[in-house]
Design brief:
heterodimer, A: about 375 residues, Peroxisomal Thiolase, Chain A, domain 1, 9-stranded mixed beta sheet, two-stranded antiparallel ribbon, 12 strands
Chain lengths: ~375, ~150
């Protein structure tokens, strides 16, 4: 099938600190590097997708396409939170397969760390409209919202702070192979559980970093990829499921749309979780990884605490997770979804250097947006099975 | 020193509109009021212009103000610019109301009291903005001397 959708180009801007770049600059530098990576010309881009350029503004895709010089016939700027970039892959794959366009660019950029005016803190007065009006007046925080999820998971399944801590520990071990990671010193379980709590039961190391960063992904057909520089990475399946946006509207704090999105994505791919050589999982918080692993079917509901033990997620483990050091220990500029794709491609091309998972053929990138509200999973492969 | 239930400078406040006004009118008179789906009889919160169960009509109903803690967190750090910074540590919880809807709120505990999932709580309203007169629901443990 020559119209099979593939990822041909990826690019990162600069992280974790890039005071020389605005959010717009992150998009442009990442795009430039992705174009160079694969040999696609800017003039060949027919589809463009982005969101979250400056917080939650609605005109991202319009202003960014102008800034980048993209003249697109297909655009999407739907804001579904940090996991929206896996959803863009889903949409781009459909558009490429049906012939709506040949080549699609997806970008992200954020100066969250360096721009002191930027914040993703919820609330802010004086008068709040819409769903936020029912949470901001109580001093809810993003960490606190995930804390409530973790608390409920612990209550129902006996998950412990030590279980969650293993995710922070394993991610830091992956970060040791990433020269860009701001802190590559190994963490112990005791370091994580004894660190100051931010919002019970989550402590400092259960929470992602706040960095700058940007990324770009270029997709086209398998046919077109033959003329390009890099080995194409196949999109075998991609699916999205939403359940809510605000934490107060989450139907059940211990299950997510990853169940539905994962089932459909794996079914499209004709693969199972056990076939994956690695997983890049949205790690806004340790609990996010645990819940996504459960939802995707790597283990049963409530079994995540046991599943992550015995070094399973660590370098050399049975399921290496977040092999670039993740949002917990390398790069989280507010929305992390695009980095899951870029790291997956790096692994599947065999270009991951010291972080390479030997012989990696299949991987899943699973993004989560909001408070585990919109889940999008993409199954990627170095070759079609 | 101010309490969480006091007016806090800079606290985000709900914008009262024609759709949610019955909730805040109820709160100001000490009554918890929820929307109920006319078709199914199921409750919903927050207030909306239509039922999330069927898309059909909703009606307002006074409810009992009793619930249980579905989950909670103790916020120990908040941004220094936040109105809540000086209130840390404080409790944010999701309350499952007896009638079936879920609502976020603060559980106010006395010295030495702790909150657990499943704890019974009851509502108490406090004016958090004298200018607008907005009252918000807060929660206390039903078996507490604070209640």
């Amino acid at each position: 099938m020559t119209r099979d959708p593939v990822i041909v180009g990826v690019g990162l801007s600069d992280y974790p600190r890039a005071p020389h770049l605005t959010s717009y600059g992150h998009h442009a530098l990442a795009m430039q590097r992705a174009l160079t990576d694969c040999g696609v010309a800017l003039a060949d881009i027919e589809g463009y997708m982005t969101s979250g350029t400056n917080g939650m503004s609605l005109d991202d895709v319009a202003t960014m396409s102008e800034y980048l010089g993209v003249r697109a016939r297909l655009v999407d700027g739907t804001q579904t939170g940090g996991g929206g970039f896996e959803r863009f892959v889903e949409l781009a794959a459909q558009a490429i397969r049906t012939g709506l366009c040949e080549t699609v660019l997806i970008t992200y950029g954020s100066d969250l760390r360096s721009n002191k005016r930027r914040s993703i803190r919820p609330g802010g007065g004086p008068f709040v409209e819409g769903p936020g009006a029912w949470e901001a007046p109580y001093g809810a925080t993003i960490v606190g919202n995930y804390g409530m999820i973790a608390q409920r998971h612990m209550h129902e399944f006996g998950t412990t702070a030590e279980h969650l801590a293993e995710i922070a520990v394993s991610t830091r071990l992956h970060a040791a192979a990433n020269p860009l990671a701001p802190d590559r010193t190994p963490l112990s379980i005791a370091d994580v559980v004894n660190a100051p709590r931010v919002a019970d039961p989550l402590g400092r190391y259960d929470c992602c970093l706040v960095t700058d960063g940007g990324g770009a992904v270029i997709m086209t057909t398998a046919e077109r990829a033959r003329d390009l520089r890099q080995k194409p990475i196949h999109v075998l399946g991609a699916a999205t499921a939403s359940t809510h946006w605000s934490i107060g509207q989450m139907p059940d704090l211990t299950t997510t749309g990853a169940v539905d999105a994962g089932q459909r994505a794996f079914a499209q791919a004709g693969l199972r979780p056990g076939d994956m050589d690695f997983a890049q999982i949205y790690d806004s918080f340790t609990i996010t990884v645990l819940m996504m692993l459960e939802g995707l079917g790597f283990c049963g509901r409530g079994e995540g605490g046991a599943f992550v033990q015995d070094g399973r997620l660590r370098p050399g483990g049975l399921l290496p997770v977040n092999t670039d050091g993740g949002g917990l220990s390398a790069c989280h500029p507010g929305m992390r979804g695009i980095f899951l794709l870029i790291e997956s491609v790096r692994q599947l091309r065999g270009q991951a250097g010291d972080a390479q998972v030997p012989g990696a053929r299949f991987g899943v990138a699973c993004g989560s947006g909001g408070t585990m509200s919109f889940i999008s999973a993409a199954i990627l492969a170095s070759e079609r099975p | 020193m101010s309490e969480l239930t006091d007016p806090l400078p800079g606290r985000a406040l709900p914008l009262v509109d024609d759709i949610n006004r019955p909730f805040f009118d109820g709160a100001a008179s000490g009554v918890l009021r929820l929307q109920r789906c006319v078709d199914t009889g199921r409750f919903q919160h927050y207030p909306r212009a239509a039922s999330v169960h069927t898309g059909g009509a909703v009606q307002w109903v006074d409810v009992g103000g009793m619930g249980t803690v579905y989950s909670f967190t103790v916020i120990r750090q908040n941004h220094a610019a936040s109105a809540f910074h000086a209130q840390t540590p404080y409790i944010v919880a999701l309350i499952d109301l007896a009638e079936g809807a879920r609502m976020m709120g603060n559980v106010i505990v006395g010295a030495g009291e702790a909150v657990h999932i499943g704890d019974a709580v009851q509502v108490a309203f406090h004016c958090v903005d004298p200018d607008s007169g907005i009252h918000l629901p807060f929660w206390t443990l039903s078996n507490s001397p604070e209640a």
